[in-house]
Amino acid sequence: MAAKNQKFCKDNMAHFWSKNFWPPSSPDLNPLDFFWWGAIESKTNRTPHLNLDSLKATIIKEWDNYPEKHIINTCKRFRPPRSRREGQWRPY
Q: Which top-rank group of organisms is this from (predicted)?
């Protein structure tokens, strides 16, 4: 499925970046992975968990209680850089 999606994007998007072009684990490209997990982890690790179900329940509880505005603001700050001259996406 991933190969099919990559081909579709390459064939239909003028400024498509292949998977080989994106830096792996870049916090700029994965704002929720880096921001959100750090914020949630600090809350879920306050008390030890005796089993996986306890940890999962705490993660879900913290997600449900996390202020939606913080998530929205984090996503809004994610803007890939553009070249001022061309107005096109530019590589890192």
A: Eukaryota
Rounded to the nearest 5°, which phi and psi values hold at 19? Answer: -60, -25
Please tell me the distance from the alpha carbon of residue 89 to that of residue 11, in angstroms, as a whole number. 18
66 within 8 A of 27, measured Cβ to Cβ = no
User: CA–CA separation, 13 vs 17, rounded Å?
Assistant: 9
What residues does each domain of the chain span? 2-77
Quick check: pTM over 0.85? no
Q: Any idea which residue has 């890192």 for tokens? A: 92
How many degrees, rounded to 5, is the angle at CA 78 between CA 74 and CA 69? 20
Whole-angstrom Cα distance, residue 84 to residue 66?
Answer: 36
